[in-house]
Design a protein that fits this description.
The complex is a heterotrimer of chains A (90), B (949) and C (193). Chain A is mostly beta strands and 90 residues long. Helices cover 10% and strands 32% of the residues of chain A. The longest helix of chain B has 29 residues. The chains are: A mainly beta (90), B alpha+beta (949), C alpha+beta (193).
Chain lengths: 90, 949, 193
């Protein structure tokens, strides 16, 4: 069982979290074409390699966050995120 | 061949003062405390223990340990017990499995006569035609299936799970493993040592050498004095990501079997080596045993394995076995030395006993053949960690190649050497494990919010500077010049593997699946290498070129009970539940909630609500407390309608759609104060909607000032419904004017109910009757319910349950999300297009709802079968006339006590959605009935006059 | 204010209870509990003085737990809790701070004894060692498949754990804890709170 590095709680069993899938920006609903909107809803890059994805720490801090995981090796790294508002130890 | 009991042996584990009486196939036998079932039977002279799976050949002891494939027996109601490992207990009723009428006169042995029809893969070629005979074939084949008997009335026993977080887990307590555990503990690590057998010591336990015994005593004493946690008769059975380990503990004092889930920082694999059988004609005859079996029988259990033995040896353990045999008076008829290129060709005799061994052209009479042909490295845990071990022909076994840094091999798995060298390697491995575990522990502690702050910097990852163990050359001995058994569990011989290769199944993965070799209870322990060797031979390649199959968990079997552990099935109840139970409730489990379905007569409950007044406990209704100045923005985002101007004290209905425009949930939201709202959701959607809201606020709108807190269970929710509802509620409520002008429909008030402050109530109407939904702090929920029941006696108050509520809401045509809508139902299909305000800035699903507005969509409609007594099953299809073209389905259906006829909601294609349209419903009985689409969703009181009074 | 009737605990079954023992489970569901939410790093967060994962005691026996980033559970005697919550008034008014009475919505159980970590190992996958879950630690995890907030607060006694769960699971969780503790001689204490 994978250990997922929750940026707030620390490493937790993957069963404590919910996987949110590939992360991708929500298009502007006012200007998106149907193709763009459905790409947002349904299409995924699915690379063999580094993937930016979201996780929800449902049994823990209940925060959504983004991580990068290598889908071939299951290594994790934290993407640099501007204005990242994470809790943590003072 | 007859085995027999010897006099006391210095290394035996028996307590000869305690005799244990038991039964074997109905006959009485005696053994000693410390015997396994197999050793006790062997000492009493039994030599046939089972019949093989396909051919029902008589089988005897082969390895005399846990992995012995011939020793699966039934003990009482416990099937597939491994008699080579299970300790004898007084009163055991032990029986052979899959034999009829008896072990010795097994009629199914006739299978051997049909051997040529039962070769590998026979079931792909036989029993295929004619197809109508398949049920018969199944029944016949089932009686020949191996395995014991299951008693469906076996009492459920205590099974258990446990989590643990050791620094170092050592799998295997031979000398190297024990040294590793001791060294790691001495370096400050928390160590768990897991040993497969009943006692630690590995091969030292059955060595008759005095110096080995001295070392064993020293190691045991050191272990006792240490802080190492030792589990015996337990196996590390799986290694998963990040060293998540499954450990099956078979000897827990109160649990039959316990599954331990351990997150180890470092795993030390010290499983030793498993002795490999040699493949030759007659190698599965009772009387052919491995060198380890001979030494265990003699030195652990004081059993003389035979009277006159041939020893085929290619290594020092085989030599030691010969010495042990000689010491206890077994006549050594011949020693065949595999290191000199000699080998045995066949084991001959009667069907049940060995009579002679043929080697080098000579026929030697013997009742015992001891074989030491080599070792298999159980690299499973390393394989599970991603390592692909490499075959070394010089030593005739596999070695680890490059496991991850948190998995270390020691002992026989890593190489050969003197006992001192193995111990030294073990100790060095333990120290390395402890150092690396400290680095992992430091990082985990530093990253974990609740942990103690760390001291200093993270220790560097210690490099592996252990002196490698040597490798003793060993002849490659897999198959003799004859063919024999490879997989004893599955009755797969080397001939079968060669045939499979010639039939085209020549990759090891295909050959395994086609022949089933390594797929039986042995799971490859004794037969993987010989299987690969046979394929390699057939292909003219090396073992390294052929490769092995993948070793997957579990390494040792565990019961379903251990996997299940305690049955954790959370159940949720409201505070009012004790009242329901005391008043004849019929409970339904919805999600995890126990809810009142009805109290005996749902139709009567409906009539009482529409005539007098009823109470329903709807506590599971999702309730979200909203606080903050930006709530209107949030509501506008989540719901399809507009929320900017909801006055304090008002309640509004809203529908939520997901980003694909599909209906997600619905409910009412009321404004309790300036910056304080309460949102309700469906009961089953409560958890999901909260996570949906949190996702929006955290990821897309983190700057909004809104706090959303689930308060579903902080309040009990009681819906008081019926023409006399106002009267009843008035009797227990303080601080609120309940008159129709002061408190109109779709408004909310704070109140004190039955003396309980902090309640709020609103006027809504799922049932279509005048109703007040009271939400009271759940710590006083039962009190409020009982107060209402007491106060309403003269008004005819009675409880009603979910079934009654469903009937009434259906009478009013209120759709239920998830019942009348599905994963494809877009917002406009509900008929609520007026509530989808496309002129808002942005809300969830808006683009899809905008694009859907111009399309013709399937619609939710009310339907009444023309025959008022026909109540279609929910999900009955709506079809075109007499064809099977599907045009919709019935989503909800009930008999209405109020109208005295059947009523439905359904989804239909747009061409059928107009009121008055006739449709055909295909009942589940196959009959087709006619029905009519209604003008409104409500079958009863479409104007809603009763509600708004 | 009208006189309120007695608090109904979610634990409705009765058990043979004991006043002391090496491993005790006590139902404290009636204890006052408030949920405070504010921005991390703001003035209100400073006032709460319990970063995520840690806790502190306040005057009068109140206990402040940093249960999530930006969320705190305040529990203890009603007056002491009220004082902590009231202390947030007048903190920077541009900050968005809310406080909600969660007394009724959460069950609270106390487990205390030297064997408490070993008992909890049977129902929860957290690392209970002193380094990873020291005195004062606060975490959220699944206990017997119910998500709970957990705080370790030993006081003067053996390791003591406060387990908060959604009220509706209370009876189920109480029984699951009794089952887990049976092996260690668990006794049920008299209800308090």
């Amino acid at each position: 069982m994978l250990l997922v590095p929750c940026p707030n709680c620390g490493p937790r069993n993957s069963a404590d979290l919910r996987y949110g899938g590939e992360s991708h920006a929500r298009p502007d609903p006012a200007t998106a074409t149907p193709q763009q909107w459905r790409g947002y809803l349904y299409l995924r890059d699915n690379p063999a390699g580094w993937l930016r994805e979201t996780w929800y720490c449902r049994s823990g801090c209940r925060r959504w966050f983004t991580l990068e995981r290598n889908t071939a090796t299951n290594e994790f790294r934290t993407p640099p995120m501007p204005g990242d508002k994470r809790g943590g130890k003072a | 061949m007859t085995m027999s009991r010897l006099g006391p042996q210095p290394t035996e584990v028996l307590d000869r003062s305690t005799k244990l009486r038991f039964r074997w196939n109905g006959k009485r036998f005696d053994g000693f405390e410390g015997d396994t079932i197999a050793s006790a039977l062997a000492a009493a002279g039994e030599h046939v223990f089972s019949r093989s799976m396909k051919y029902h050949r008589p089988r005897g002891i082969l390895t005399a340990d846990y992995w012995d494939p011939n020793l699966m027996v039934q003990v009482g109601d416990d099937p597939n017990v491994r008699a080579g490992n299970r300790l004898l207990e007084a009163g055991m009723d032990v029986r052979a499995q899959n034999v009829w009428p008896s072990l010795h006169r097994d009629i199914k042995a006739a299978n051997s006569l049909f051997g040529r029809f039962l070769t590998a893969g026979f079931y792909y070629k036989t029993f295929m035609r004619p197809a109508w005979l398949w049920p018969t074939y199944e029944r016949v084949l089932a009686t020949f299936a191996p395995g014991g008997k299951i008693d469906l009335d076996t009492p459920h026993r205590y099974h258990d799970k446990r989590y643990t977080h050791p620094d170092v887990v050592v799998a295997g307590a031979g000398p190297a493993g024990i040294e590793a555990a001791l060294a790691a503990a001495a370096a400050g690590a928390r160590v768990l040592l897991v040993e497969h057998e009943h006692a630690v010591g590995g091969h030292l336990r059955y060595s008759s050498s005095d110096s080995d015994q001295a070392v064993l005593a020293e190691l045991r004493a050191a272990l006792d004095a240490s802080e190492v946690e030792v589990l015996t008769n337990s196996t590390v059975t799986g290694r998963y990501e990040d060293n998540w380990l499954g450990i099956v503990q078979r000897n827990h004092p109160i649990a039959v079997e316990r599954l331990i889930k351990a997150r180890a920082k470092v795993l030390v694999a010290a499983p030793g080596l498993i002795e490999r059988p040699y493949v030759f004609s007659g190698n599965d005859r009772p009387g052919v045993i491995t060198s380890g079996a001979a030494r265990r029988l003699i030195n652990l259990w004081g059993v003389k394995p035979g009277e006159r033995a041939v020893v085929f040896t290619a290594n020092s353990e085989g030599d030691a076995a010969a010495a042990d045999l000689d010491r206890v008076g077994v006549e050594i008829a011949a020693i065949i030395d595999g290191r000199e290129g000699k080998r045995v060709s066949s084991a001959q005799g009667s069907s049940r006993a060995l009579g002679a061994v043929v080697a080098g052209g000579n026929r030697i009479e013997a009742d015992l053949l001891v074989v030491a042909a080599g070792w298999t490295a159980p690299t499973s845990l390393l394989n599970m960690a991603g390592d692909r071990p490499v075959h070394d022909p010089a030593t005739a076994r596999f070695f680890p190649s490059d496991p991850p840094g948190n998995v270390l091999a020691t002992g026989g798995l890593a190489g050969d050497g003197t006992l001192d060298e193995l111990r030294a390697h073990g100790a060095a491995t333990g120290r390395l494990a402890a150092q690396r575990a400290a680095a992992v522990a430091h990082r985990l502690q530093a990253m974990t919010a609740r942990a103690r702050p760390v001291d200093g910097d993270e220790p560097a990852w210690a490099p592996d500077e252990r002196t490698p163990l040597g490798r003793d050359p060993h002849p490659e001995l897999y198959r003799s010049d004859t063919h024999g058994m490879v997989d004893f569990s599955e009755d797969v011989g080397s001939k079968d593997l060669v045939a499979a290769a010639h039939e085209g199944y020549d990759s090891v993965e295909l050959a395994k699946r086609y022949t089933t070799s390594t797929m039986g209870p042995s799971q490859g322990k004794l037969e993987t290498v010989n299987t690969v060797a046979a394929i390699a031979e057939a292909r003219g390649e090396t073992i390294a070129q052929v490769g092995t199959t993948v070793w997957r968990p579990p390494y040792a079997p565990l019961t379903l009970g251990a996997l299940a552990g305690r049955v954790f099935e959370p159940v949720r109840v409201s505070s009012i539940h004790p009242w329901h139970e005391a008043n004849g409730v019929s409970t339904i489990i919805a999600g995890q909630w126990m809810r009142p379905d009805h109290y005996g007569d749902p139709a009567a409950e409906v009539r009482n609500v529409r005539t007098n007044v009823g109470l329903i406990d709807v506590t599971p209704l999702g309730k979200l407390d909203l606080r903050g100045p930006d709530i209107p923005k949030l509501l506008n985002l989540l719901y399809t309608n507009k929320w900017s101007k909801l006055p304090v004290g008002k309640v509004r209905y809203g529908m939520m759609c997901a980003e694909d425009g599909v209906v997600l949930d619905d409910g009412v939201t009321g404004r309790l104060g300036e910056d304080h709202y309460l949102m309700t959701t469906t009961s089953s959607g409560a958890g999901g909607v909260w996570e949906w809201v949190e996702n929006w606020l955290q990821t897309e709108r983190p700057d909004w000032k809104v706090h959303v807190t689930p308060v579903t269970t902080a309040y009990v929710s009681i819906n008081v419904a019926g023409p006399k509802a106002r009267e009843l509620v008035g009797r227990v409520t303080e601080g609120v004017d309940l008159s129709p002008d002061a408190f109109p429909y779709m408004e909310v008030r704070l109140a004190t109910v039955a003396g309980v402050d902090g309640c709020f109530m609103w006027r809504i109407g799922f049932t279509g009757e005048l109703s007040f939904e009271i939400h009271a702090p759940s710590g006083h929920g039962l009190h409020v319910w009982e107060a209402l029941m007491d106060a309403g006696q003269d008004l005819g108050v009675g409880p009603f349950g979910l079934e009654g509520q469903r009937i009434m809401r259906l009478e009013k045509g209120h759709f239920i999300v998830g019942q009348d809508t599905d994963g494809l139902t877009l917002g406009p299909s509900t008929g609520l297009s007026p509530l989808i305000k496309l002129d808002k800035d942005d809300f969830a699903g808006m683009p899809e709802l905008a694009w859907a507005a111009d399309r013709s969509l399937p619609m939710i409609v009310a339907i009444q079968p023309d025959d008022p007594n026909v109540v279609p099953d929910e999900a009955s299809q709506i079809v075109r006339g007499n064809t099977n073209e599907i045009l919709g389905r019935i989503t909800s259906a009930r008999m209405s006590p109020t109208l005295g006829r059947s009523i439905c909601l359904g989804q239909v294609e747009p061409e059928l959605a107009a009121g008055g349209t006739k449709v055909t419903v295909l009942l589940t009985s196959g009959e087709r009935v006619s029905a009519t689409v209604m003008d409104h969703h409500a079958h009863f009181d479409p104007a809603g006059e009763r509600l708004r009074g | 204010m009208a006189e309120s009737p007695a608090f109904e605990s979610p634990v409705v079954r009765s058990y043979e209870s004991s006043s002391g023992g090496p491993l005790m489970l006590t139902d404290a569901s009636a204890t006052t509990k408030w949920l405070v939410r504010a921005e991390t790093g703001g003035a209100a967060a400073d006032r709460m003085d319990a970063p995520f994962g840690s806790s502190r005691t306040a005057g009068g026996g109140a206990f402040v737990m940093g249960s999530r980033p930006g969320e705190w559970i305040v529990t203890g005697p009603a007056d002491a809790v009220a004082e902590v919550v009231a202390g947030l008034d007048g903190v920077d008014s541009s900050e968005f701070v809310t406080a909600l009475d969660w007394t009724h919505g959460r069950a609270l159980f106390l487990v205390t004894g030297t064997d408490a970590p070993r008992m909890l190992e049977k129902v929860c996958s957290l690392d209970w060692s002193d380094a990873m879950t020291p005195n004062g630690a606060v975490a959220s995890a699944s206990v017997a498949k119910v998500t709970c907030d957990i705080a370790r607060y030993d006081g003067d006694s053996a390791p003591t754990y406060m387990i908060f769960c959604d009220r509706s699971f209370g009876q189920y969780l109480f029984d699951a804890l009794i089952d887990a503790g049976d092996e260690f001689g668990l006794a049920v204490g008299l209800p308090n709170g």
